[in-house]
Amino acid sequence: QVQLVESGGGLVQPGGSLKLSCAASGFVFTDYAIGWFRQAPGKERERVSCSSSNGETYWSDSKEGRFTISRDYATNTTFLQINDLKPEDTGIYYCAQRYFCSSPVSLTWGQGIQVTVSS
Question: How many other CB atoms sit within 10 Å of the CB of residue 13?
Answer without folding.
Answer: 10
